[in-house]
Amino acid sequence: MTTIDTRLMSVELPEAFDPPWSRLPGITVDGKHITIDPAQYFFRFESHTWLVADWELVKAELLPTEETTESAVEQMALDFVKAHGHSTSDAARVLAIAYEVYAYLFRDEHLNGLGLPQITADHLRMLRQASTLMALNKVELDGHISNVGPCWFFPAATSVVFDLDDEMGGMLDEVYHGGWFNEHRRIDSIKAHAALGGRLVHGCQSVPDQSGGVVAPYGASMTAFREDLTRFKAEWIAQVYAHPVTDAA
C-alpha cells in the first residue's frame, strides 16, 4: 500500500520565492523560507528518498571538464553520479541543491544569447523557482513515476502562480524544456543535473503536449515512463488548473 509521509518539508533558500506559490495546495512561502505539506502537495508520493551529489563538488570537478572522443559528456555525468551520488531522505537538502543547479542554469547573463526578447530576468526567476520545486519529483529505474507534484506540469503551475497567459506560459515552457539550451547550454545542463542524480527528461515533444519534465536516473526505462505518464497526466494537469487565483493569495 502506498503511504504518504506526513512530515512537513521545510527549507531556507538563498532567494525569496514569490508569495503566490501558496496558491498551490501544500506550499507555504515566507520570504526565503518554504514549507511543503506532502499530503497536500503531491499527487503521488511513494518514494521518500532522492539521489543527489554535492553541488560544490559538481562545480569543482565536473563543470570544468571537457568532452573527449573517448568520453561523452553523458558518460562523464553518469560516472560522476556513480562515484559521488548518495541517497538522502532530507527533502530540504534536495531543494537546496536544486536551487543551486537552477541558479546556475538560469542565470541572467544568458539573456542576451537567448534570442527571445520577451523573456526577462523576472521570467528566469520564475524558472529557477519552479525548477527547484520540480526536483522533488521522481522516476524509478523501471520507469515508474513515484513522486509527482504540480511543478511537473510547468505551464500549468506557472500560469496559476504567476498569472501567465497561455502564450507566455508556453514560451517560458519552451525556454525551460528546449529553447534555452543551444549545444553549449545542453552540455551545461547535463553536467549540472548530476547534482540531482540524473538527467533532465521530458514527457512531451513541445508545449502543446504539456507532459512536463523530471530529473530521471540514467538507465531509467523511458518507455515505461511515458506509458505511466500518459495514463495519469490529464487528471493531474486538471488538478493544477483547478486552483483559482484569488486576491488573497
Describe this protein's structure.
This is Aminoglycoside phosphotransferase. By secondary structure, the protein is of the alpha+beta class. The protein has one domain. Helix content is 43%, strand content 14%. It has 9 helices and 10 strands. The chain has helices at 38-41, 55-62, 73-84, 91-105, 121-134, 154-162, 166-179, 183-192, 222-241, and strands at residues 9-12, 27-30, 33-36, 44-45, 50-52, 86-88, 138-139, 145-148, 199-202, 213-216. Strands 1-3-2 form a 3-stranded antiparallel sheet. Strands 4-8-7 form a 3-stranded antiparallel sheet, with helices on one face. β7 (138-139) and β8 (145-148) form a beta hairpin. α4 (91-105) packs antiparallel against α8 (183-192) and α6 crosses α7 (166-179). It is globular. The model has no long low-confidence stretch (mean pLDDT 87).
